[in-house]
């Protein structure tokens, strides 16, 4: 009892002792940009050191492209007809690129849940930088990592019959980055509210599978039943997949009839949505989701 009452007296600084003051720099744009760069660098470092994550992220897209694409190509070759022939691997190649980016981008947000469980997120939130800078760094870092993962799939274009045109490759990388930025923002929004890794992966699986199958990544968007056509138009991933397919088909030598069958584009009540508007929708979705993520982080304690 005596020791408990005297402990605060021992911890108290003696009279006249110098007090060490901690200087906290004021927030500024320069500090926020530095925070974005540090968070981005941390995401890249974690991705580079996690070789198992790099390999496992490529298994599913490669299986879709080489195994399923090759296995079902014989069906399309049989039914090609006088219009010509489009290999199934060529058709699903843009969709596989989008799927690869989607899985990597959305799962990159799991680092937020991981940091929360181990207490590192609290240290980031009390840092003298804007929380918006942390969210932007997370989103840009996740988008860069997903684009790097998608670059490996783009490097396999020759196996799918897609030409190695430098302009096509640059266009695909740019489109994948925009799509990855929007999808990472979606993942960050979910991660801001989910407390455990088990719940996060469960919700991610529940969100990603419908988005993948309703995006038109594996089938043309024309001739669908009304209910399925409506669902594909409501799916945000549809507007990330279609510009990739439009870019690939612009560099293929196919007849107009085949182009209409395999590259019908997205239509709203019979009006074909321009590629520029699709890209604008993806950008707006990315900015909107990032804004929601910033608001969620500002409310976090």
From TrEMBL:
The chain crosses the membrane at residues 58-79, 91-114, 135-160, 172-192, 199-221, 275-295. GO terms for molecular function: ABC-type transporter activity. It is found in: Cell membrane; Membrane. The keyword Magnesium does not apply. InterPro entries: ABC2_TM, ABC2_TM_bact-type, ABC_2_transport, Nod_factor_ABC_transporter. The keyword Transmembrane helix applies. Its main location: membrane. Keywords: Antibiotic resistance, Cell membrane, Membrane, Transmembrane, Transmembrane helix, Transport. It is a multi-pass membrane protein. Pfam families: ABC2_membrane. PROSITE patterns: ABC_TM2. One of its GO terms (biological process) is response to antibiotic. Belongs to the ABC-2 integral membrane protein family. This is Transport permease protein. It comes from Actinomadura viridis. The lineage of its organism: Bacteria, Bacillati, Actinomycetota, Actinomycetes, Streptosporangiales.
């Amino acid at each position: 009892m005596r020791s408990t009452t005297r402990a605060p007296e021992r911890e108290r600084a003696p009279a006249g002792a110098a007090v060490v003051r901690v200087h906290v720099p004021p927030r500024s744009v320069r500090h926020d940009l530095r925070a974005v760069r540090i968070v981005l660098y941390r995401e890249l470092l974690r991705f580079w050191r996690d070789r198992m994550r790099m390999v496992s992220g490529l298994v599913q897209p490669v299986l879709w492209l080489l195994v399923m694409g090759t296995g079902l190509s014989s069906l399309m070759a049989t039914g090609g007809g006088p219009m010509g022939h489009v290999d199934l691997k060529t058709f699903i190649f843009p969709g596989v690129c989008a799927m690869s980016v989607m899985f990597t981008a959305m799962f990159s947000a799991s680092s937020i849940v991981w940091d929360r469980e181990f207490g590192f997120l609290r240290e980031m939130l009390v840092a003298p930088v804007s929380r918006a800078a942390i969210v932007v760094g997370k989103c840009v870092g996740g988008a860069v990592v997903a684009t790097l993962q998608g670059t490996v799939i783009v490097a396999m274009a020759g196996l799918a019959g897609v030409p190695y045109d430098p302009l096509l490759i640059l266009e695909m990388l740019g489109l994948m980055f925009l799509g990855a930025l929007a999808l990472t923002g979606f993942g960050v929004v979910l991660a801001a509210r989910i407390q455990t890794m088990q719940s996060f992966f469960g919700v991610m699986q529940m969100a990603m599978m419908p988005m993948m199958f309703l995006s038109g990544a594996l089938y043309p968007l024309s001739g669908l039943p009304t209910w399925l056509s409506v669902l594909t138009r409501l799916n945000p991933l549809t507007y990330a997949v279609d510009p990739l397919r439009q870019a690939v088909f612009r560099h293929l030598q196919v007849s107009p009839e085949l182009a209409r069958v395999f590259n019908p584009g997205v239509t709203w009540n019979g009006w074909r949505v321009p590629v520029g508007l699709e890209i604008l929708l993806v950008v707006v979705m990315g900015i909107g989701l990032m804004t929601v993520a910033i608001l969620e982080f500002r409310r976090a304690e």
